[in-house]
Amino acid sequence: MTPALKISHLTKLYRRGTLAVDDLSLEVEPGDFFGFLGPNGAGKSTTINCITGIASPTSGTIEVFGVDTVKRYRDARRLIGMSPQEFNVDTFAKVYDIIDWMGGYFGMRAAERHARVDMLIEKFDLVAHGKKQFRDLSGGLKRRVILARSLVHDPQLLILDEPTAGVDVELRRDLWRYLQELNKEGKTIFLTSHYLEEIERLCQTIAIIYDGKIVRHGPKKEFVDEPGGLEAAYLRATGAEPDHAVVPAS
Amino acid sequence: MKDGSAVSDVGPVFNWIGLWTIVRREWSRLMRVPVQAFIAPWISALLFIFIFGFVVGGRIALIGGHHYLEFVLPGILMLNVVNAAFLQSSSQIYFSRFLRYVEESLVSPLSYAEMIAGVLSVVIVRSVITAIGILVIASLFGVTHIQSVWEFLYWVVSVSVVFGLLGIIIGLWANNFEQLTILNVFFITPLSFVGGVFNTVNMLPKWMQWVAYANPFFYFINGLRHAMIGFNEANEWLGVGVTLALAAVMAVTVWRLFSIGYGLRE
Description:
Number of helices of chain B: 10
Helix content of chain B: over 70%
Helix content of chain A: 25-40%
Radius of gyration of chain B: 20 Å
Shape of chain A: globular
Oligomer: heterodimer
Number of domains of chain B: 1
Number of strands of chain A: 10
Shape of chain B: globular
Radius of gyration of chain A: 18 Å
Number of helices of chain A: 9
Largest sheet of chain B: none
Order of helices and strands of chain B: HHHHHHHHHH
Distance between the termini of chain A: 51 Å
Structural class of chain B: mainly alpha
Structural class of chain A: alpha/beta
């Protein structure tokens, strides 16, 4: 079976000399809910940027459902939906337009696009906010808009870079439920998060990146079954001392 | 697709809807600042026409058989077309980088050609609307005369493309608002003012006439002046050649910058 995502020997060296990703290889199976963990600066966002086209790989190849993201970038990008860590939107634009324009970039015809935008606006409970400017929304609402935007062209691979950062508990749970629904419908989800609870709850497979390299990769069960669970496994993989992580409550 | 099988080429050869979306989006941004985009150049043109053409021009003898107001109008118009084109593309690119929404186009199936064509389409629309507005204002003073509509359109559109492309280069290069305005302040405005907006080449001292002939703005203004009132101070085909050569150089530069992701991709 063709992997949903296949990264082979990816290296990203920035112009200023920082080696952000170092010969990284990784495969994600179709339909997987994949957790991509790592400390700040480990190379998570750079890897995602190389997959989506925001950054150009220095060397190596990336395929999405067998489609090379550089050689056949048009076809590859139609398969990917991206929700970035930071809000990359025209903050003065209206919510409806932000989602609609993204559909336009993907070549969706007006009728199909409007139906899809209406559906997403309703699904993410944004009906009352469609005509508001993005900058006037709360942090949680902004997250929903970004997620809706990433889904407008109905991608097969959804890449979420810390999608629940800064949102309240209720919205986080709503987003989790929705992501689980999407995954059940067959979407492959590639999720980065600093919330280990989130990864443990949602993901089936986990990879840990540290210093630009994959230091551990396997089914979630392998991580959570270890003494100390996922947190201890994560800390061990990233070179930290697990014992120092947990301070028992007195 | 859900079984993960490889896809075939599914997209259109040219993403027309994507290109149209760039135009729609930028038009929406422009309509948030209509005073800055259209009203300001029209008021500035009105003041130029009134002071230099009507008040001062009334005391100046005919130039090549034309009233001074008729002579000066093409220069004023070209000045505003150049500004509209440059400001449009430079701000469009710069703000999309500054607010990072350029990433929306980078992750979508838009080619470099579609992105550049989208930017230039809006540049031409803004320049043509600016030019039409100035013609309407000039008509209030009874001087709207266009000898050749096609020649007029050629000059407005080709000069818009040249400065639209130049604006893209500056928009990609600039890292702050100060850098965004440098070229306009030190290059575009001075050269356009000495490019024959208010005077003929013959009015200049002998040694300065060669400076005028070396100034590309002279050919833009001279070309538009010929299209409007038939007054010509240089070989018009030389002017056409200069414009096309500049457009080609700018286009190759912009294409190269997009290809290496300069200012766009990390």
